[in-house]
């Protein structure tokens, strides 16, 4: 279960990080201003749809960090030599590499990891979901 007070603090941190007001943040993620106000005041808990809108509008926000404080915000970047590796999100890994000759940054995004799938969850528009475990 989500700790509503802690979620509110993390949401405020996201809003402050981007220099947004509650009203402009609501507009960017496509929800009513009252939704943000009710969540920030603790009156309402965030819905799955709300969380997904935040994640899709602000890719630097990690799901597990937003929900339960585990992980990082904003996504940390590791620099190894001339290669900058952005931390993985749930779906892809992005690698930027500086060309040794002219300093041009080359970005390569891949999603073909040789990882075993543990579980797939499909969310339907009516709010229901299906859970498939390996």
List the helices and strands and how they pair.
Layout: H1 4-17, H2 22-29, H3 33-41, H4 48-57, H5 63-68, E1 77-80, E2 83-86, E3 93-98, E4 105-110, E5 119-123, E6 129-133
Antiparallel strand pairs: 1-2, 2-3, 3-4, 5-6
Task: Walk me through this protein's architecture.
- By secondary structure, the protein is α+β, with helices and mostly antiparallel strands.
- The protein contains 5 helices and 6 strands, in the order H-H-H-H-H-E-E-E-E-E-E.
- The protein has a 4-stranded antiparallel sheet, with no helix packed on it. A two-stranded antiparallel sheet has the order 5-6.
- The chain starts with a helix and ends with a strand.
Q: Outline of this structure?
A:
By secondary structure, the protein is an alpha+beta fold. Helix content is 35%, strand content 22%. The model is unreliable at 84-95 (pLDDT under 50).
Protein traits:
four-stranded antiparallel β-sheet; 434 Repressor (Amino-terminal Domain); two-stranded antiparallel ribbon; alpha+beta
**In percent terms, what proportion of residues is strand?**
15-25%
Helix content: 25-40%
**Assigned CATH architecture of the largest domain:** Orthogonal Bundle
Strand count, sense and closure of the main sheet?
4 strands, antiparallel
> How many beta-strand elements?
6
> Could you give the order of strands across the largest sheet?
1-2-3-4
CATH names the topology of the largest domain as 434 Repressor (Amino-terminal Domain)
Query: Mean pLDDT across all residues, rounded?
Result: 78
Helix-strand category:
alpha+beta
Order of helices and strands: HHHHHEEEEEE
Number of discrete helical segments: 5
- List the domain count as a whole number: 2
CATH class of the largest domain: Mainly Alpha
Give the uncertain stretches in residue-range form.
Answer: 84-95
CATH evolutionary superfamily of the largest domain = lambda repressor-like DNA-binding domains
Please tell me what the overall shape is.
globular
Question: From the alpha-carbon coordinates, what is the Rg to the nearest angstrom?
Answer: 18 Å
Q: How many angstroms separate the termini?
A: 24 Å
